[in-house]
Design a protein that fits this description.
binds magnesium ion, Isopropylmalate Dehydrogenase, binds 3-isopropylmalic acid, alpha/beta, 2 domains
Length: 359
């Protein structure tokens, strides 16, 4: 039986994940596929219970599962802890332990939400981008790192950016493979005009394309220019490939094109398992009020069915159920516009479940 570890985490992570689990129960019943579902504590909730953001027990359960469904982690309560005890550090450890090196973040502008974007309709209409972000290397993990005292009573903060050619190649391969099933266009993002690690990035991506993917079009952009082009001509992008930190930034920007971070799912895939999580954070300011948007979590579940369990049909049905629900005017506060029906997290969740049942 396929195993899923559910870790709702903190803040709105708890509410949005609950909706996805309701939907998963319906999917089990409709598809006849049973999942073994376990739950674990993670992030701030694990710090409160055990003093650390990720216990060995939860880590082992994650390694033992076929897929992890994550909510969100973090919040002001745990912000001032020592670096290694912060919720965020638990998330980075989990990604690293599962060797989930390729982070897929689709940014799609739904026709029903085209006016929710802060950009003009004609710029964002039809945008459909897949950001592929390297997730287990780069400056997030490079050594040396830390803050150390130096002469004159000063301190020095250090982080290190390095990539090996094999780290670049494996994530670039994922990007090209995804592009093969889409519009056959990859934009690789770097800063090779300044950073040697990014010269290697550009050369490695170019070589891989020549060797294995000459039928895919490859464009290189410096990250500053990419940030600009992404709001200038978003429709021209198909797959955007970037290292860990640039991918973090570019994927938030791509998310904003769609109107709300509340809509964006992600999949982190690699060698020892996979993590599916909304791109949004724990949003402590709105947590516990039943106003969060569960669609990012629901679409993360859809990605899980597709990438971890080859259930393309059910995955597509989830997307369709979300579209139908939006078409019928249901909106959470983050995507609300006049003339639509503003509802809470649970209510839009049950509307989506209802649409799914009826497909
Ligand atoms: C993300 C988040 C994380 C990251 C944080 C919470 C550590 O911003 O998943 O994009 O920087 O990777
Ligand atoms: Mg981020």
């Amino acid at each position: 039986m396929p195993k899923i570890l559910v870790i709702p985490g903190d803040g709105i992570g708890v509410e949005v994940t609950a909706v996805s689990i309701d939907l998963l129960n319906i999917i089990e019943r409709k598809s006849g596929t049973k999942f073994e579902i376990e739950e674990g504590l993670f992030g701030g909730s694990s710090i409160d219970a055990h003093g650390i953001p990720l216990t060995d027990e939860v880590k082992d359960k994650a390694l033992d599962s076929d897929a992890v469904l994550l909510g969100a982690v973090g919040g002001p309560k745990w912000e001032n802890l020592e670096h290694s005890l912060k919720p965020e550090s638990g998330l980075l450890t989990l990604r690293k332990e599962l060797d989930a090196f390729a982070n897929l973040r689709p940014a799609i502008v739904y026709p029903a939400l085209v006016d929710a974007s802060t950009l003009k309709k004609e710029i964002v209409e039809g945008v459909d981008i897949m950001v592929v972000r390297e997730l287990t290397g780069g400056i997030y993990f490079g050594q040396p790192r830390g803050i150390e005292p130096i002469a004159g009573g000063e301190q020095k903060g250090v982080n290190t950016l390095h990539y090996t050619s094999s780290e670049i190649e494996r994530v670039a391969r994922v990007a090209f493979q995804i592009a093969e099933k889409r519009n056959k266009h990859v934009t690789s993002i770097d800063k090779s005009n300044v950073l040697e690690s990014m010269v290697l990035w550009r050369d490695t991506v170019t070589e891989l394309r020549e060797k294995e993917f000459s039928h895919i079009e490859l464009e290189h952009l410096y990250v500053d220019n990419a940030a600009m082009q992404l709001i200038r001509r978003p429709k021209t992008f198909d797959v955007m490939l970037a290292g860990n930190m640039f991918g973090d930034i570019i994927s938030d920007e791509a998310a904003q094109l769609t109107g709300s971070l509340g809509m964006l799912p992600s999949a982190s895939v690699g060698n020892k398992g996979a993590i599916y999580e909304p791109v949004h954070g724990s949003a402590p300011d709105i947590a516990g009020q039943d106003i969060a948007n569960p669609i990012a979590s629901i679409l993360s579940l859809s990605m899980m069915l597709k990438y971890s369990f080859n259930m393309d049909k059910e995955s597509g049905m989830i997307e369709q159920a979300v579209k139908n629900t939006l078409d019928k005017g249901f909106r959470t506060a983050d995507i609300y516009q006049e003339g639509t029906n503003k509802v809470g997290c649970r209510e839009i969740g049950s509307a989506i479940c209802g649409e799914f049942e009826n497909l």
